[in-house]
Design brief:
The complex is a heterodimer of chains A (301) and B (69). With 301 residues, chain A is of the alpha/beta class. Chain A has helices at 23-40, 58-69, 84-100, 110-114, 118-125, 129-148, 159-171, 204-213, 230-244, 248-265, 288-300; strands spanning 12-14, 19-21, 49-54, 73-80, 105-109, 152-154, 184-185, 194-196, 273-274, 281-282. The longest helix of chain A is centred in the middle third of the chain and has 20 residues, at 129-148. The chains are: A alpha/beta (301), B mainly beta (69).
C-alpha cells in the first residue's frame, strides 16, 4: 500500500478517507485534524494555558504531544483512581512523559477527594464502576482547573468515544445528554471551566498509530473495570458497522453535530447554582459528587 | 511466525505466509481495531507476513467512562 501524498510505503490505511499514509505524512495529517478541530470550535487561543487531562493512555498522551509540538502552553492533570497496579503504571507513564518534555503535571488522588479509591467506591455505592469514576473525573478536572487558574481543560476523547457515547444516548433517547455532547463545551458559569475534545475528528486507530509512531510510551492494558462496560459494547457494534461501511462512525457523529444537535439544544435551559457543600456548580442543592462522597464516608466509617 | 496478542497478553504460533488481513480474519479480529507491528513498524492489511516474523497485534480500544483517555 502506498502513501497518498508521496507514494512511499504506507504505515496506516484510513478506509473512511479512502487513503493511506507513510509515517511522516500520517503525523502531518493527524496534526492538521487537531488544528482543524481547535480552529472550528475556537477551543482555545495561543495566549491560554491548556490543562490536558491525561490517563497514561494513547489518546490523552497523543493529544498532549500534539499541543506541545504545536507550541501551545500546556500542563497535565493526572487523576489517580487508585485502581491497583493499573493506576500505578499509568501514573508512571504520565510522569515520565511530562518529565521528558519539561511539562508541569498536577496529580490529584480520587481517594483524597471521595474518601476511598475507585474500587472501594464501586463496592460501597453499588453504582457501575465507570459511572462513579466518570463523575469523579469530571468533578476533579473542573476543580483542579479552577484551583490552578487554567481556563480550559482538554481531554483525549476521540471519534470512537464520541460516536459510542452518542449511540448510547440515542439508544435511550437521553434528550438531556444530547445537547451536552459537543467537541467544545463553553463555560456557562464562573466556576465552570471550558471543556474541549481536540481529538474528536480522529479515530481510536489513528490516535494509537500516532502515539506509536511518535514513540510515546503509553499504557496498552485496559482498565480492569472496563471489561463489560456498555461503552465498549457500543464501540464493538459500531466497529462492525464501520467494517462493512467505512465512514459510518464519522457520518453518525458529524451528522449529529451539524444537523441534529441544534434541535436538542432548546430543551436544555437548566439554572445552575453552587453546591451548598463544596461550592462547585450543580443543578441541585448538593452536587452529585458530594452525595457520592458522603455515601462513601458513611459506608466506610 | 509468532503472534503476540494483548488483553490478556499471550503468544501463538502461526504456520505459513499470508496477508495481515487474512491473519486477522483467522483470528477473528477486525483490522480497524488493532495496530499490527513488526520490527517496530506498522503494517497495513496488504502486507505479507510469515516465516520468522514476530508480530504484535495491539488493540486500540479504550474506554468505559467519561473521563480522560
Amino acid at each position: 500500500m502506498k502513501c497518498r501524498k508521496c507514494g512511499g510505503s504506507a504505515a496506516l490505511e484510513l478506509r473512511r478517507h479512502n487513503a493511506a499514509f507513510c509515517p511522516p505524512h500520517f503525523i502531518e495529517f493527524f496534526r492538521k485534524q487537531v488544528a482543524e478541530a481547535v480552529h472550528r470550535h475556537q477551543m482555545f487561543s495561543r495566549g491560554e494555558t491548556i490543562l490536558v487531562a491525561v490517563s497514561g493512555g494513547k489518546d490523552s498522551l497523543a493529544l498532549w504531544d500534539v499541543l506541545i509540538e504545536d507550541g501551545y502552553r500546556t500542563a497535565g492533570l493526572y487523576l489517580d483512581l487508585g485502581i491497583f497496579d493499573y493506576s500505578k503504571e499509568s501514573k508512571d507513564k504520565c510522569e515520565a512523559f511530562a518529565a521528558a518534555r519539561g511539562q508541569t503535571l498536577h496529580i490529584e488522588r480520587v481517594a483524597d477527594a471521595v474518601g476511598a479509591p475507585i474500587p472501594v467506591v464501586q463496592q460501597v455505592t453499588r453504582r457501575p464502576t465507570c459511572s462513579g469514576c466518570g463523575l469523579s473525573k469530571r468533578y476533579l478536572m473542573n476543580r483542579a482547573a479552577l484551583q490552578h487558574g487554567y481556563p480550559v481543560v482538554a481531554t483525549g476523547h476521540n471519534l470512537d468515544d464520541e460516536a459510542a457515547t452518542l449511540f448510547g444516548s440515542v439508544m435511550h433517547w437521553q434528550t438531556d445528554a444530547l445537547p451536552r455532547q459537543s467537541p467544545a463545551l463553553a463555560s456557562t458559569h464562573p466556576k465552570l471551566v471550558r471543556r474541549v475534545k481536540p481529538l474528536y475528528r480522529l479515530s481510536e486507530l489513528e490516535t494509537a498509530a500516532y502515539a506509536f509512531l511518535r514513540g510515546i510510551d503509553y499504557i496498552v492494558e485496559e482498565c480492569p473495570f472496563a471489561q463489560g462496560a456498555t461503552s465498549i459494547a457500543h464501540k464493538e457494534i459500531l466497529n462492525r458497522l464501520e467494517e462493512t461501511s467505512p465512514g459510518s462512525k464519522h457520518n453518525f457523529l458529524f451528522g449529529f453535530l451539524e444537523r441534529a444537535r441544534p434541535a436538542f439544544e432548546r430543551v436544555e435551559d437548566v439554572p445552575l447554582q453552587e453546591c451548598t457543600s463544596c461550592g462547585q456548580v450543580t443543578t441541585g442543592t448538593v452536587c452529585a459528587f458530594c452525595k457520592m462522597a458522603d455515601l462513601v464516608k458513611r459506608r466506610t466509617s | 511466525m509468532k503472534v503476540i496478542l494483548r488483553n490478556p497478553r499471550r503468544e501463538i504460533d502461526v504456520e505459513g505466509r499470508r496477508r495481515v488481513k487474512e491473519l486477522l480474519g483467522e483470528l477473528g479480529i477486525l483490522p480497524s481495531t488493532v495496530l499490527v507491528i513488526r520490527d517496530n513498524e506498522l503494517l497495513t492489511s496488504d502486507a505479507v507476513v510469515g516465516g520468522d516474523d514476530v508480530l504484535e497485534v495491539r488493540p486500540v480500544m479504550s474506554g468505559g467512562n467519561g473521563g480522560p483517555r
